[in-house]
Amino acid sequence: MTPRPWLSARNRRDIGILVVLSLLLTLALPSPPASAGANLVANGGLEAMGGDGFPVCWERSGWGDSPYTFDVTTQAHTGTKAMQITLAQTAPGDRKAMMLEDASCAPTVTPGHQYDLGVWYTTTTPNTVMTVFRHDVAQGWVYWTDLATLPVTTSYQHQVVRTPQVPPGTDQIVWGVTIYGAGTLRTDDYTMEDVTQPAPGTTACTAGTACTKGVWQVMPFNTPVRAIHAVVLHNGDVLLVAGSGNNLDDFAAGTFKTAVYRPSTGTFTDVPTPADLFCAGHVQLADGRVLVMGGNKDYPSADGTVGYKGLPDSFVFDPATNSYSRVNNMTAGSWYPSATVLGNGDVISLGGLNENSSGMVATQYFDASQERWLGLNEANQTWSFWGLYPSMILMQDGRLFYTGSHVFGNGLPGTGASIYNYDANTITPVSGLQNKDERDQSMSVLLPPAQDQRVLTMGGGNIDTNPDANRLTDLIDLKQAAPVYTAGPLLPTGAGQTPSQGKMYVSAVLLPDGKVFETGGALHNRADPVYEASMFDPVTNTFTAGMATDPVPRGYHSSAFLLPDGRVMAVGNNPGDGTFDMRVSVYSPPYLFQGARPQILSMPDNTWAYGSANTITVDGPVLKAELIRPAAVTHSSDPNQRFVDLPMTVTGTTISLNLTSNPNLAPPGWYMLFVVGANGVPSVAKWVKVG
């Protein structure tokens, strides 16, 4: 179909009426059967109203000089509201009521799938068409097609049209009805169903295997930097830090790289990088800036007698300016340091290698109010070595739990896990961790919700002895007076693996439905990728195997993390031959195919005090609400990842969300606020500043 050349991309429509009518002969469908699939349209009945007096998730759109009116009328097909457009004359231009081009409102789609789009309408002009736009992950929102011309009718008629197969690189679509001739158009009760692989007799998801496994999409572009580190910023962008990127030539040339990725447009912004931040530590501060500590002072000597050396430099990255600024140096060089934010907003960093390539034994403490690292004599010291990237999780009483997850070689002496009390300068061993010397690049997460104080540690290997990576998981309840690890369920095995083989380089992501998505990994040191993914349910302590798998290998120097739209992004892979995979993958979990997203209609305040009740309005019933701290991940390590439950007081569609009074459960900073609808589908996150 050929759009008018004088139309903008946002407002193109078909004038090839004969072409459209022939399309209708093959695409028009009767009313949906009783076993219809999930309706993917948010506010399809138009009953929820926004502050602008127009239905939520819909916008007034169009162009041209012809006089027009947009109205919300009570002459509805069902309910009490319908959208009405009146165009005074036929002239160049059009008007349309369209879905918002917004991650929360635009239905998620799968390339190659087809969808039935349905609407009830009346129109007094034959110049009425159904218009569709798609979100291309590389180009942004673009015109897709006009699907059907709607016949004139003065009583409500139902039109259902099937889309062509969704083109590659498309993750969402929006659509609506366009009027481009003098007359009045009225629409109501929009529906959209995935009809690619209908499940017989189902009344829910009809998206085939995506209903239970989710689906991955490899983006049609590469990252401009080696994504060693990934941080989700409070504006929705993603900070990707390479430094020299494990590339000795770049180190010698002083070529250090950082980029900011904007998921909404698929674009990258290069950021000048002041030092080799390869294998630094990083954590988000209370104001949303990112504290980056340490990095790479030097690569190992050619004869192998001297190893990597830690950099003492430290910087703060500001998302508002996409730039680094220097703070004072750490008290010692740090390569592979931990970074844990405390309930008062300060940061403790432990472990790593110092400037002489020896184990760094100082406790390094960043005072957020002074914006500086304290001197050695100002911070409490145990002079203990914690390994490289030790996973140090903040407990509800302010102590730190060393989970036993670390990087490179064997675990620490003793039980391999412990509780560290900074104030008292004590370290208490924790027993029960299985095969503590084979938890190299395992991953540990504080399970949802943080209030339960349960930690799951999964997988791991040992780059020194290089055995097959294991399937072990361990669970611990930190609320107990003397916590002890207990064996958890085995990790599911990947294709071609023996029953004893698992994975190291594990990624684990907390999802807004309360589950943990486990993905990526390899069987051996920088070799033999494992294509396996599973879903862990903290309620039942079980894994669901056989989730969709990332087609890109994700081993050493890979990361996976939650985006504010509820999807999971994966980057990186650095096998033993020194290459680096620059591809980006995005996973849409099964919940994105179960129906329309719930909408957070209003949130009067996005700065929440501890112990406060905070009111939001939503468009329908919700099951739960939570805050999820955005990721700051590298090397299977993100000890600050947490899911904070928000107990609800519900009055219709007005909900009061109760934030914990304990800052150790939700350290100050920016969080993603999700609500989960009765269909199990999460909203797109709103950003909330805690503390």
From TrEMBL:
Domain Galactose oxidase-like Early set: 597-690
Pfam families tied to this protein: Glyoxal_oxid_N (PF07250), GO-like_E_set (PF09118)
Record keywords, A-Z: Signal
Domain Glyoxal oxidase N-terminal: 260-578
SUPFAM superfamilies given in the database record: E set domains, Galactose oxidase, central domain
InterPro entries: Gal_Oxase/kelch_b-propeller, Gal_Oxidase_central_sf, Glyoxal_oxidase_N, GO-like_E_set, Ig-like_fold, Ig_E-set
Listed PANTHER family: LOW QUALITY PROTEIN: ALDEHYDE OXIDASE GLOX-LIKE, SECRETED PROTEIN-RELATED
Protein name: DUF1929 domain-containing protein
